[in-house]
Design brief:
By secondary structure, this protein is α+β, with helices and mostly antiparallel strands. It is 59% helix and 13% strand. Helix 3 (73-96) runs antiparallel to helix 4, helix 4 (103-180) runs antiparallel to helix 5 and helix 5 packs parallel to helix 8 (324-335). One of its GO terms (molecular function) is phosphorelay sensor kinase activity.
Length: 362
């Protein structure tokens, strides 16, 4: 017949798991029998030793309680050793009322076990307090993160509801006109299509910022020059005078999440084309040994607006969503980079990324 078992909370316990209780109890019985046979008895009364007996039994039960901590090794051993030593001390105190113990026996099992047990219990208590403090700190961080997410969701809800209202109203108005005047419906439906595309862009940007902005996968070596050129081909207008100047050493790669870094370049390039026009020149270059920068020769960003433009939903363009630079800022922060906005050599906007870790060339 196997050992009995039961479930407490989510962990399964069996009688076999409580072998320390059996060991301590067996040692206690052996110690008791030895004293009763080896030492001279002294007169005593039951009430005089009853309280000490109860205390010793309670401490033996404490051994079983401490055994439930066996999975937490840093807490388990100090408490187990401490409670066992204190139990032995209490047992010896009980027998001290029944037999005359020699000095060496009282010294070993009384004067040594009591302070040693107290010391181990104190050590276990300190570790328990430290564990509780760490758990409390972790809980506070999780609570703060949940609070930030809730605030971000409220912010996104407000921005999205505001930004979606205009294209929705525009699409509805044009559809009404198209229904009333079918002969000119093509022109109105084209406007509706543009409005729907803008709504899709707003939704995509919002999801990117809310879901992926602060997350990066394990960084890997990235060739910034190659990635920047790939992103430029996607962002620039075909047959325009826009130009990308990448002055980076391909042998010096950076440690980054390629997908997130691609979003940084795509958003910055789109921002430059939108504000500086189709003839813009964008430069990507090293920033000393601390990172890299992306600059253009457009109108630039006034100093008083350089912090505001990174807020989600901020835009001064009719066709902007206000999320592009916010996404850039979130991704840089997720990498541990510092993002600063300055004026470029030609008076345009310059986005500087510092704290970028260099990776060895593969």
């Amino acid at each position: 017949m196997g050992a009995q078992s039961w479930t407490a909370d989510t962990e399964t316990f069996s009688l076999a798991d409580y072998w320390p209780v059996v060991v301590v109890a067996a040692f206690s019985i052996t110690l008791t029998v030895y004293q009763l046979h080896a030492f001279r008895h002294i007169p005593t009364t039951l009430p005089k030793v009853a309280l000490d007996v109860v205390f010793a039994v309670i401490l033996l039960g404490g051994v079983g309680i401490v055994q439930r901590l066996r999975a937490n090794v840093p807490l388990y051993w100090p408490f187990m050793v401490g409670i066992t030593l204190v139990h032995i001390f209490a047992l010896v105190e009980v027998l001290d009322e029944l037999v005359r113990q020699p000095f060496w026996f009282d010294f070993v099992f009384g004067d040594i076990t009591a302070p040693a047990g107290a010391l181990f219990l104190f050590l276990g208590l300190r570790r328990w307090v430290a564990t509780q403090e760490a758990q409390r700190h972790e809980l506070e961080e999780q609570t703060a993160e949940l609070t930030r997410r809730a605030e971000r969701l409220d912010e996104f809800a407000g921005v999205v509801s505001h930004d979606l209202r205009n294209p929705i109203m525009l699409a509805k108005a044009r559809l009404d006109v198209a229904c009333e005047h079918p002969e000119g419906a093509a022109e109105h439906l084209a406007v509706v299509e543009d409005a729907l595309e803008r709504m899709e862009t707003i939704v995509d940007d919002t999801l990117t910022l809310a879901r992926d902005g602060r997350t990066v996968t394990d960084p890997e070596p990235v060739d910034v020059a190659t990635l920047a050129n790939e992103c430029w081909r996607a962002a620039s207008v075909p047959e325009s005078d826009a130009n990308l100047d990448v002055d980076l050493d391909a042998s010096k790669r950076i440690a980054a999440d390629p997908a997130r870094l691609r979003q940084i370049f795509e958003n910055l390039f789109a921002n430059s084309v939108r504000h500086a026009g189709p003839a813009v020149t964008v430069t990507v270059d090293n920033l000393d040994d601390t990172g890299f920068y992306v600059a253009d020769d457009g109108p630039g960003i006034p100093p008083e607006k350089r912090n505001t433009v990174l807020d989600a939903g901020y835009t001064d363009a009719d066709d902007g969503t206000g999320f592009g630079l916010a996404i850039v800022d979130e991704i840089a922060d997720a990498h541990g980079w510092e993002l600063d906005i300055a004026e470029s050599e030609h008076g345009g906007a310059r986005f500087e990324f510092r704290g970028v870790e260099r990776a060895a060339h593969a």
